[in-house]
Write a structure and sequence with these properties.
336 residues, mainly alpha, 12 helices, 0% strand
């Protein structure tokens, strides 16, 4: 809606926030109902291009603000705020503050997507670990550079103002509504989210479907089933199940988007309740059990058995770190 208002659209039907939640939901439902990730290859290109556009202009806007036209309104101009100007100048190379706690949950959110990796691997044409590694070696430097450039130059541009309530964790909302380049970026971000969500939704839908099938078909598989696809395998999933699961997932996500105050709180929740358990707690529980109860089995595969105690200790420490990060995430969420 703010983008439409910037283009002169008057308040009414087309600027209602609920419309811009329901209308994209139909697109998300269609893309999330695709059976295989391969069906999202072209939409993924759109998502990649739009986010690279934002990264480039966050980088360029730092220099145009510093050496050209200032981003914030100056004294005597409409919208000028002395407080915003002071916050913008507040740039620290290193500082420890209470607000750092909130970054732990956001940081952990980046790990919540790792369970999707097996599905990426399964749909490779050349299904080998080396092929998967080649893709990772290309993707991860691009991802790291994109986050690094956006975080660094976004902070250098806005200083402490980068965490303003106006932005709600979304860097493009720090820029003025009449910034033409960033207005295009906001439109691009809309399409980016439309194309990225289905990738995670399909993997989530498959995971939930498989859990339900395993629970419904509990018990060991007999010899005749050994060569059959496991319960919940995407190749055996009925079309009706895909549609129902995608519908429920999109409706739930739309509701969360409606009640959530901003992107920052969503990332904090994601990191707190999904990222931390996946990265720290679950591996720690698995490791603690393996290196405590099945030492005789593990010892056969470890050259130095004395390290088993170290691995067991590391596993327990990982569990503690996970719960500490969850507590920090909850503290940050309630304080905000």
């Amino acid at each position: 809606p703010p983008v439409l208002r910037n283009f002169g659209v008057e308040e009414g039907f087309w600027t209602h926030e609920l419309l811009w939640l329901i209308m994209p939901a139909f697109i998300l439902f269609g893309l999330s109902s695709v059976k295989n990730l391969n069906g999202l290859r072209w939409s993924s290109v759109v998502g990649f291009v739009t986010i690279i556009y934002i990264v480039i202009f966050v980088f360029l806007r730092y220099f145009t603000d510093k050496y050209g036209e200032p981003i914030l309104p100056q004294e005597g101009e409409p919208g000028y705020s002395e407080q915003d100007q002071e916050l913008k100048k507040e740039v620290h190379v290193f500082k420890i503050a209470f607000s750092c706690i909130s970054t732990l949950a956001t940081y952990s959110a980046s790990y919540a997507y790792h369970p999707n990796a097996p599905y990426y691997y399964k749909e490779l044409k050349d299904r080998r670990p080396s092929t998967m590694m080649k893709g990772s070696m290309i993707a991860f430097p691009i991802i790291t550079l994109s986050y690094g450039v956006t975080g660094l130059f976004g902070y250098l541009t806005f200083g402490a103002l980068v965490a303003s309530s106006k932005a709600q964790g979304n860097i493009v909302d720090n820029y003025s509504d009449d910034d033409a380049a960033m207005t295009i970026g906001r439109i691009g971000l809309f399409f980016h989210l439309l194309t990225v969500y289905p990738i995670n939704a399909i993997c989530c839908r498959r995971g939930v479907h498989r859990i339900l099938c395993v629970l419904a078909n509990h018990g060991p598989r007999n010899a005749s089933e050994a060569h059959q696809p496991p319960p919940g395998d995407p190749s055996t999933t009925k079309r009706s199940s895909i549609i129902i699961e995608a519908f429920v997932l999109v409706v739930f996500s739309t509701y969360i988007a409606y009640i959530a105050p901003g992107l920052g709180i969503v990332l904090a929740l994601l990191g707190t309740f999904f990222g931390n358990p996946i990265v720290y707690i679950f591996p720690g529980l698995i490791g603690s059990r393996i290196f405590h109860e099945d030492i005789s089995v593990v010892a056969e595969h470890i050259k130095d058995p004395s390290r088993i105690k170290i691995y067991n200790t590391v596993s327990r420490v990982s569990i503690v770190i996970g719960f500490v990060f969850i507590a920090c995430g909850l503290l940050a969420i309630f304080s905000s």
